[in-house]
Design goal:
CATH superfamily: Protein tyrosine phosphatase superfamily
CATH class: Alpha Beta
Distance between the termini: 29 Å
Largest sheet: 5 strands, mixed
Mean pLDDT: 90
Oligomer: single chain
Helix content: 40-55%
CATH topology: Protein-Tyrosine Phosphatase, Chain A
Low-confidence stretches: 1-24
Structural class: alpha/beta
Number of strands: 9
Strand order of the largest sheet: 3-5-8-6-7
């Protein structure tokens, strides 16, 4: 079912003491870093599908393209969309959602893709409301406002959750497992995702970029791109909610992202660990040697894959 594009290995680079084969011909080559691959490949159900590669770090190196992708959930997916997704030649699908979310909306992926769940919010699963339950809740704006405490209540809920991404035992355990999976050379191309690909996925991408030396400004720019892709995707729900008398900011705060959300995670990380390296080593149990390996795998000087 998958349409596989050819892999052209045009060079090898010595980086951090390791040989790195550089994959040149991948779908995202030529796109702006962070650009929606869902839109580029014409997969409407995946607006937040992106290649994490292309960004330049503070040493002038580039995050490798075609190795790791991020996304919203792979459901719904029809046969045509699966065929287009096949161009990424995915080997692994890392799902950061809870059991209830997966039961309600399971991933629809090709049989050749290995699926693994990393339940980041297992210790606070009630916060991650499955999409089907949210759809029912959003039919009643008054009840929604009461449940979340208005738009500010939604913001408070998300900032608390982002702190939990750093502090919760289940988050530390599963982010550790995710990053150790990503550093396995045989795991790529791979993708990690949650429901909308913005929160659990957003912290995974942001913390990885920080480890790779991407600037804070670029990390936040990339993080906030979720608004460009997700708010139009959910516009009909926002409009219907508003038409029934609901405050649109409640759903905008829910379906989108705010700098305050990511601020909360980085603040929690700095308070507990002091640096991204210490977060990885003390918080996630990923030692300096493995961090170096991750950097070697994900960074390149290759101009051809910028």
């Amino acid at each position: 079912m998958k349409q596989l594009i050819s892999k052209v290995f045009i060079a090898s680079f010595i980086l951090a003491g390791s040989w790195l084969p550089v994959q040149a011909q991948v779908p995202s080559v030529g796109l702006t870093p962070g650009q929606s691959l869902g839109a580029f490949l014409d997969i409407p159900s995946l607006p937040n599908l992106r290649d994490i590669g292309g960004y330049q770090n503070n040493e002038g190196l580039y995050v490798v393209r075609g190795k790791t992708y991020r996304s919203n959930a792979f459901n719904p997916m029809n046969a045509q969309e699966l065929a287009k997704l096949g161009q990424l030649d995915l080997k692994n699908d890392y799902d950061l959602r809870t059991n209830a979310e997966i039961a309600a909306v399971p991933d629809i992926i090709s049989s050749g893709v290995h699926y693994t769940q990393f339940n980041v919010m297992a210790d606070d699963a009630d916060v991650a409301i499955p999409p089907d339950q949210l759809s029912i809740l959003f039919q009643d704006p008054k009840r929604t406002a009461e449940k979340f405490g208005g738009a500010q209540g939604v913001v408070n809920m998300f900032t608390k959750s982002y702190r939990g991404f750093v502090s919760m035992p289940s988050a530390k355990k599963n982010y550790r497992s995710l990053f150790l999976s990503l550093q396995n050379p045989t795991s790529s191309p791979n993708v990690f995702h949650c429901t909308n690909g913005k929160d659990r996925t957003g912290w995974a991408a942001a913390s990885l970029y920080a480890l790779l030396g991407v600037s804070k400004e670029k990390i936040y720019e990339d993080y906030l791109l979720s608004n460009s892709y997700l708010l139009p995707f959910h516009q009909k729900e926002i409009d219907a909610f508003t038409a029934k008398g609901g405050d649109p900011e409640i759903l905008i705060s829910f379906f989108g992202v705010k700098p305050a959300y990511l601020d909360a995670a980085f603040d929690e990380m700095n308070k507990r660990y002091g640096s991204i390296e210490q977060y990885f080593s003390k918080g996630l149990g990923i030692d300096a040697a493995t961090q170096k390996k991750i950097r070697a795998m994900y960074l390149t000087s290759a101009v051809s894959i910028k």
